[in-house]
Amino acid sequence: MKRTEALEAVYGQLKRHIVVTIMGAVAVELQALGHQDNFFYLQHGMGLAPSVGLGIALSRPAHKVIVLDGDGSLLMNLGGLTTLARYRPKNLVHVVFDNESLLSVGGFPTATATGSDLAAIAAGAGVPHTQRAHTLKDFKAAFEQALARNELTTLVVKVEDTGPASFVTDLTLLENRFQFKRHLETLTS
Amino acid sequence: MPVSVKHSESIFQSLKRCGIQIASALPETWLVHLIRMLEDDPQITLVRLAKEEEGVGISVGAHLAGVPSVMLMQNHGFLASVNGIVSVAQLYRIPLLMLISQRGQFGERDPWQTEGGGVTEHVLRALRVPYETLKNPTQVARTIEQAQTLANAALRPVAVLLSRELMWEDE
Description:
Chain A has helices at about 5-15, 25-35, 50-60, 70-75, 80-85, 120-125, 135-150, 175-185; strands at about 20, 40, 65-70, 90-100, 100, 110, 130-135, 155-160. By secondary structure, chain A is an alpha/beta fold. In chain A, helix 1 crosses helix 2 (about 25-35) and helix 1 (about 5-15) packs parallel to helix 7.
């Protein structure tokens, strides 16, 4: 499956929740589907998207936070999984698009290409629910279950190593940051 | 352990006055009492980190969600956080309040702490992070509150260095 297909399949749900993405293809492809004020694209600081998500989830426990991560980013902060698992926010869903590649810098294979299993690492870190999806149908079902579960879930989705032609979009980083913060301010509790 | 309980308490009270609701930290000898006080406070969520850079992400998330936070670490933890400070907190104009124990100054007995003390202020200056070294116990509340005020006005990271004079009571 392509990551764009996976994003499109759950876009309806993403629209209704707080979403934090990593940089690169995920950010560009989600914006192409339609940017919303409740989407924050962490356009650098690789590895820190789950940490940003944890900070939001702890601050806004009544709202679901969906973190759209990637294998290259997550591999830079595996210790962050242990922190996520320690506080196991019930309102956080951690999706990892695993294309086994550092796509945006030229497609260098990551350690998941040589056998490292991020779902097993997350489970070993103590994340209460971990799942893998290889098909679009499985991903959609697993994502919906994760949203409904009310318990921290890491969902690792195997996707093709294809992405957009360009990684720069019209939305400036600060515009997104202030817009997103304003949006969170409008939420009750 | 001759870490000052009294001065840890005044730092804790200052953070309370600043409205801090989330504190992220990695255990460090000078910070043990302070971390325990934060953990025991029902109004504060203490996030124990695996590595300090995660704390930048947590403070960024907390700020975007409207919650004041603080990062507590020793200077080696600050050095481990530099990329997060630059590529998230500075890039996205986040008022990040950092309390950093300044190990490796005069009086340091632990050989492994001696390099970090020499470079910390240089790195802070290179990053253009405003900082003050806190030595005088009577200045704790003023310094921490003013650090937070500047961070919020500038939308940038700010650091308070916690000195040996403040944190350590020699036997």
